[in-house]
Structure formats: structure tokens, C-alpha cells
Amino acid sequence: MEPPKMNPVVEPLSWMLGTWLSDPPGAGTFPTLQPFQYLEEVHISHVGQPMLNFSFNSFHPDTHKPMHRECGFIRLKPDTNKVAFISAQNTGIVEVEEGEVNGQELCIASHSIAKISFAKEPHVEQITRKFRLNSEGKLEQTVSMATTTQPMTQHLHVTYKKVTP
């Protein structure tokens, strides 16, 4: 079976496609947490629809025990640089982030966040993300968040190397 042809609507995000592995391990910090490291595998693909599919799977760097998981879709408003990032996370958070793609950089911020009724406190109230393809061809992601007890603060930074197109 032939792989699906990429929908031209998502062409501005084609630099994100592929399987990516954290290299070096990602770094996490937040005022209420001890600093930590993690490994992450990212799959970003398309099936010919006007959106990308994604999954982010993180693991403990020593034990390889699963940690954070999220999956969803990245949509572009046709004929614009407006982007929506729709994500469901294993922490019980579902979010919609919106922003813009400019060249090989995607900046998005939470538009709406929903959580399960028994989500752990403090609750996430805002999220921002920045993805960019750096000059070495590596994908970088920086995530900041605000909770019910902390202002907007950088939470994660990770650099990925591409392992499959």
C-alpha cells in the first residue's frame, strides 16, 4: 500500500514529521518539584488528512519505566499560519493550545484545559509550548506552565534527534 500523500494544508509543519528521540535526556523543573531528567520518544505523522497525529512517550532515564504520555493532533487553519494543538494526557488533562507556525518554529499557548474530577493538585491552569527545528536539524521543545499555586514558569526543555523520517 502506498503511503498517503501529505495534505497541502499541513505542509508548513512538515519539518516536525518523523520519529524523534531525546538526545540528551530532557530536563524538568518546577518550584514544587525536584529537578529531574527523562527520555522521550516522539512520533509525528500524517494519514493524508489536514492535520498531523502525534504521541509523546517519556521514560525514566535509568529504569526506563513509563512516565508522562500524551497524544493528539496538530491542525492548521487553511491558508493561514494559525495552529491548534489538541492533546490528551495520562495525567487526566485534555487541552487545546493555539498559536502560530513561523518558518520552523511553532509557538502555542493554552486556549482551554479540562481535567478529570480527581486530578492531583495543584491544577494546571495555563501551558505554553515552543517547538523549533534548530540549525543542527534537531527538534527542541520548551514547555512552561502555571498552576493554582505557581505563576508561569518553565517546566520542561528537551532536544530530540530524528531517527526516522
TrEMBL record:
The keyword Metal-binding applies. It is found in: Cytoplasm; Nucleus. GO terms for cellular component: cytoplasm; nucleus. One of its GO terms (molecular function) is isomerase activity. Its main location: cytoplasm. Homodimer. In the C-terminal section; belongs to the nitrobindin family. This is Peroxynitrite isomerase THAP4. It comes from Nannospalax galili. The gene is Thap4.
